[in-house]
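User: I'll paste a sequence; please echo it back and then give the predicted structure.

Assistant: Echoing your sequence first, then the prediction.
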Amino acid sequence: DGEGKGLLYVARLLSQGTNSDGDTALRVMDKLVSQWPQLPDAQQAMGILALRFGKPQLAEAAAHEAIRLDPGNPDHAFLLIGALVKQNRLDDADQQMVTLLNKNATKTAELRMGYARLLLESDQRDRARTQLQLLLKEKPGETDARYALGVITVDDGDLDAAERLFKPLLKGRRSLDAAYQMGRVEELRKNFPAALEYYERVSSGSSAIDAAVRRAYVMARLGRVDEAQGIMQGLREQVPQLAQRFYVTEGDLLLNI
């Protein structure tokens, strides 16, 4: 089984390439898989790579072969679901998901969360929302599901519902992300002082840059234009590779005061 695990590792490495590397990566993997065609993880590796580089039909074929070789492995079934979603065969994906959940009752939360992410990546927001709601009904304390549903709810414009989802997350491991989202909620309500207070909480983490940019916009709306420009200047110095983006943002900010 070491060869299969090795091929999965190679697939992860090759999947980090750009889209233009896809055909080459798939040719390399095909040659490797041909040496161990009866290893389910070899088929899984091919499927993962095919999905990454926009070949969902190839991924589906690989998933079916992996399932044939190792019927009880949920990873293979989930690969098949991913391939179906990418082909917009959503009813088929839902049916496969029901079967997978029935066979893996102890992994319901993990599987629903993964399925919701797949659906969101394919812009299937309504179906993703359903999965997240079902997950939270089963496990109300599931932080990532609550956060993801909150983001969808903000985008839908239901700000009160979004607030109810994010407020409990302000303490815990997603506190900074939740503070950023609460800043969005208050900004959309045009409650700019409250929005600024939330954005100022986000001093680090994955939302820090976005929070700083929104903070600049809010400051400009409050008439604190010099401070807003100071934030943008600071961002250009801290993240020079994004300097062009920040110049464009500053221009937009000044035009929309």
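The radius of gyration is 22 Å. The chain is about 75% helix and 0% strand.
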